Request: fold
Amino acid sequence: MAELSFANTSQHLQVLKRARLVICQREGKKIRYSLADPLVAVLWVDLRRVAQLQLTEINQVMDRYRAHRHDLQYISIGDVWQGMQQKEIVLVDARPEEEYAIGHLPGAVSLPVDAIPLRMRELPMGKTIVTYCRGPVCVDADDASILLSAYGYPVKRLEASVVEWQLAGYGVEMG
Reply:
């Protein structure tokens, strides 16, 4: 999915393992890597946030990569949670289905961008659609927001990722 060679991916994972940022577990012929500690996720989120605040070129790159990010309406984690409790929103996970299966926000619908034209009728009208993906460095939720908005849905974008959702103290669903 990252479009890296097997050898390159393996080397990156070995560096992270030596740094004790990830751990691995053998599952037959496969090796599953995961974060060594929840604090590693906190480190990543904080490092990204500091980079965005301190390095102006990060925002310039983000503007080129996510060309429509300033055109979107955003929603906070807290407002998403409140909207979920009041059944006012529908969550759309714009990531690939493989990532959705590993963990997604409660009640979210897996709807990758390329599937939207085929499956958008599954989404109810009259509710706010909230799209999300891998966080502020991911364009999938932007594309989903723009497409759904063009079809007449009221849409907001959650900048937070599944990891940030969990760090805020909320649970995820798997499968």
Summary: Helices lie at 6-18, 38-54, 56-65, 77-85, 97-102, 116-119, 140-150, 162-167. Residues 6-36 form one domain. The chain has a mean pLDDT of 93. Residues 38-54 form the longest helix (17 residues).
